[in-house]
Amino acid sequence: MDTRENIxxxxxxxxxIRGVYKAFGSNKVLDDFNMNLQRGQSxxxxxxxxxxxxxxxxxxxxxxxxxxxxxxxxxQNVLNMSQEQLDVIRxxxxxxxxxxxxxxxxxxxxxxxxxxxxxxxxxSEKEANERVVEALKNVGLEHTIDMMPSELSGGMKKxxxxxxxxxxxxxxxxxxxxxxxxxxxTGREITTLIKEIQHKYQTSxxxxxxxxxxxxxxxxxxxxxxxxxCYTEGTYSELxxxxxxxxxxxxx
Amino acid sequence: xxxNKPAKQLQAFFDEAGRIARFTAWYFRQAIRPxxxxxxxxxxxxxxxYQSLGLVVLTGFIMGLVLTMQLRPTLVDYGVESxxxxxxxxxxxxxxxxxxxxxxxxxxxxxxxxxELGSMRVTEQIDAMEVSGTNPYKYLVxxxxxxxxxxxPILVLLSDTISLYGAYLxxxxxxxxxxxxxxxxxxxxxxxxxxxxxFIKTFFFGFAVGMIGCYxxxxxxxxxxxxxxxxxxxxxxxxxxxxxxxLLVVQVTDIMGFN
Lengths: 252, 259
What we know:
A: 4-stranded antiparallel β-sheet; 10 helices; 10 strands; B: mainly alpha; 87% helix
């Protein structure tokens, strides 16, 4: 899909990225990067390790600031937002970290309650508890509610992290390599869970992944990040038959 | 022309000093602005104070006992054995108590803060906090630095007291001195100018330990190896800072006529 078509679709986009440039010293990571995410769409960003995929979603959530460009989320440019505005928009965006980022010093319950308490979500104790239990049920781990993260396996940690992401019922979820470091069976379970969540909550998603099985099962559309640019976009089946060697190498 | 190695090291030193100064300035800016993290501050005060309690009590007791036993032979030679409580009291309250307790505190708390924040940084927990609508600097750094600043003086007071108890036992190993006489001898030589500068400097010691631990942990890089390095350098740098602050306080109190 070329840039003109991308811009034409901006009106339906929940996330619209235009001309984003981000460098670390002399290393250009994103260079005039353009991409849209439509409402309800699940987009996978594919690219080699170190190509800037995680940097991209960290720019979207405001953890990193690009040197140039605009990132509109629900029509508002996150790069011009104050901290308070950013906190408001972050309630609508869930972020699943590659390393899960569960707080070691807190129980599973406290981990899940943390975003609700910090975003000052007005809920009674009963409602908050119900939400925690519901989020844990979604990932099939209600019994871990009073456990510490250190007592959980890698796959369980990933599920709990996903439950924490869901606790605020976000409209958009950004997944940073959700199946990396997991065995194939657990990876498949997480992929299924992502699909279930998308179906149940009608979320829009950006998924960073190298795992082609996960990509195939979760992607409505795939964007290929190459040399800091969105090299091409298309569905899995479109890109899988591409003759372009830059695309082909991911599908072989 | 390429800068030589010492010049590079000097530049790196000033770069690091500048970064620490900026990190410290940020503390004062963040500490006075709402939202205040009182719950976390109280939790950290409990953790930091409680974690060091056993170690401070043990080292304080040994410090007083050993100091007394080491002083005795010399003072006996001069025939001033009766001055042991006074000498130990001055040494413990003015210098040895605050510095030794602060060094123990740096080893225990500085490394713990450095490692904890370092591991939170490399496992993206600090980023997760930010995404969860939390200012991680305020939640993690301001609370820990404030707790360390408030807790160390209390620990030093406790350590001094236990130390004097150790000294009392030390005195009574070879002679018999009543508790009343010992206390009278101690407080006879101690006055406001001994207590206050020593007490005030412990706030600076606590602040330095907390701040350096947080700085090293918060800016940790390079995975688990970086966490170890953060914890280690937090202890080394805060120990050096304790001596530098001690030197400065001695100079200032000397100028002000407290010595």
